[in-house]
């Protein structure tokens, strides 16, 4: 009696292929979601490290970095303007890059530094340029030529990182914030897709976020994916779904919904919201009122 042969029919093969296809279709989105969450978590971890570096700097100097300020140069003697990330380099174990600025006589050549890059931003992550994904709270845009105050003017209650080249005496410290709206309710750092390079100091929009009294669409949180740096895009933005990572002045980091009321964002930017004023015309900034956890947890 001849041996029986076992084989799959065409229908059975097609059913197996269909099942495999369905499993792949189900698993790929789940794997991608896990990867996105992992990148978002790593992004926030880097921001927390930056937040700790800011706290260490403020603890040793008794004031926060300016969004730009003078750095005394060693050889030849003199001083050079630098942006706030450069001031943190010694706290981030990158004294080697910091020393480049101490000895510079022209525009320095500096490397990309991982801690300044969000892993969820592939354009910057996969570049070799010294990009910055994280921006500091500079309050309102500084006054420009032809406005009520001299260029570079800002008010202390508007934000944390001020222009210490134009206003060297305008120094913020944690005590001022704690006695105002509180460290836990004042933003320190955020993400921004439209940030420039970490050593750029020519304009605040390269390395900071600001708030406006009457924002347009591009100035809202995640309001646009346009990545060209400008004042209207000096705001929080990311490639995460439905929000951005932020770090508060007390060092706490969290994910913040991009659906929060813009007035809540504005209030979170101001260390003392009831004293905030527009440097363009000296007008008071309308306060939001007392913030509650419900304002943030959307």
Secondary-structure topology with pairs:
Layout: H1 10-61, E1 68-73, E2 78-83, H2 84-88, H3 95-102, H4 122-125, E3 134-137, H5 174-178, E4 187-191, E5 208-209, E6 243-248, E7 253-257, H6 262-269, H7 293-296
Parallel strand pairs: 3-5
Antiparallel strand pairs: 1-2, 3-4, 4-6, 6-7
Structure description:
Helices cover 29% and strands 11% of the residues. The strands form two sheets. A five-stranded mixed beta sheet has the order 5-3-4-6-7, covered by helices on one side. It contains seven helices and seven strands. The protein is of the alpha+beta class. The protein is globular and about 85 Å long. β1 and β2 (78-83) form a beta hairpin. The chain has one domain. 38% of the residues are buried. The chain has helices at residues 10-61, 84-88, 95-102, 122-125, 174-178, 262-269, 293-296; strands at 68-73, 78-83, 134-137, 187-191, 208-209, 243-248, 253-257.
Keywords:
single chain; 298 residues; alpha+beta; 5-stranded mixed β-sheet; 29% helix
């Amino acid at each position: 009696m001849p041996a029986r042969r076992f084989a799959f029919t065409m229908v059975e093969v097609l059913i197996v292929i269909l099942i495999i296809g369905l499993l792949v279709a189900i698993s790929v989105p789940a794997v991608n979601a896990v990867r996105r969450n992992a990148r978002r978590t790593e992004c926030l971890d880097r921001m927390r490290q930056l937040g700790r570096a800011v706290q260490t700097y403020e603890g040793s100097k008794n004031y926060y970095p300016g969004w730009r300020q003078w750095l005394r140069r060693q050889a030849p003697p003199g001083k050079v303007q630098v942006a706030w990330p450069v001031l943190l380099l010694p706290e981030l174990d990158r004294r080697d890059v910091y020393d480049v600025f101490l000895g510079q006589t022209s525009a320095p050549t500096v490397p990309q530094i991982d801690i300044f890059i969000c892993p969820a931003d592939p354009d910057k992550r996969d570049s070799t340029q010294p990009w910055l994904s994280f921006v500091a709270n500079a309050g309102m845009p500084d006054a420009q030529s032809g406005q009520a105050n001299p260029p570079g003017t800002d008010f202390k209650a508007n934000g944390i990182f001020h222009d210490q080249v134009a206003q060297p005496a305008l120094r913020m410290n944690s005590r001022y914030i704690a006695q105002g709206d509180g460290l836990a309710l004042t933003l320190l750092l955020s993400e921004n897709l439209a940030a420039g390079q970490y050593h750029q100091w020519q304009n605040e929009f390269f390395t900071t976020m600001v708030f406006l009294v009457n924002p347009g669409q591009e100035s809202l949180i995640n309001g646009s994916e346009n990545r060209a740096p400008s004042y209207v895009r000096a705001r929080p933005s990311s490639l995460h779904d439905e929000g951005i990572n932020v770090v508060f002045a007390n060092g706490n980091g969290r994910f913040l919904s991009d659906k929060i009321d813009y007035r809540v964002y504005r209030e979170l930017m101001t260390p003392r919201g009831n004293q905030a004023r527009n440097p363009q015309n000296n007008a008071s900034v309308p306060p939001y009122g007392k913030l509650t956890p419900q304002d943030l947890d959307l």
